[in-house]
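FORM 12-B: Structure-to-Sequence Request
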């Protein structure tokens, strides 16, 4: 799933991607899309927004927040068996002592007859993680363990 906002980078063992968003919230949304784009083939699957889950997270810094957000999505995928197709990061704000994120993610229960899985993502990592403010918005880079 290569889009103008998502770029998959070469890595010898795992999957690395870089995304761009006009806002930090949009960059986090594209990071979630990129991670699910690794796990499931979006070209053959339309994911219906049957179930919406609210996510409310706090972390010491923005990298921790990104790690926690993507890890929460991976946890919900593995434990609740939900595949997500819609990511709405409502707000990321700097609060006293750290950062806070509010988001809504929507998807549907995994259906192995309809959903074609590509690569298994084991974990989100901090290795090579970058969150960068640029003139045109934000760039985020993530490496996921596969």
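FORM 12-B RESPONSE
SEQUENCE OUT:
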């Amino acid at each position: 799933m290569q889009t103008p906002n998502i770029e998959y980078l070469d890595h010898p063992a795992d999957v690395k991607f870089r995304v761009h968003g006009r806002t930090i919230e949009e960059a986090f949304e594209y990071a979630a899309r990129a991670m699910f784009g690794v796990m499931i083939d979006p070209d053959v699957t339309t994911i219906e927004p049957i179930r919406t889950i609210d996510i409310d997270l706090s972390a010491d810094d923005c990298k921790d927040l990104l790690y926690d957000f993507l890890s929460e999505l991976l946890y919900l995928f593995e434990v609740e068996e939900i595949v997500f197709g819609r990511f709405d990061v409502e707000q990321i704000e700097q609060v006293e002592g750290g950062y806070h994120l509010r988001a809504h993610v929507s998807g549907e229960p995994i259906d192995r007859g309809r959903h074609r899985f590509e690569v298994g993502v084991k974990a989100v990592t901090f290795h090579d993680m970058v969150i960068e403010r640029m003139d045109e918005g934000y760039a985020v880079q993530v490496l996921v363990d596969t």
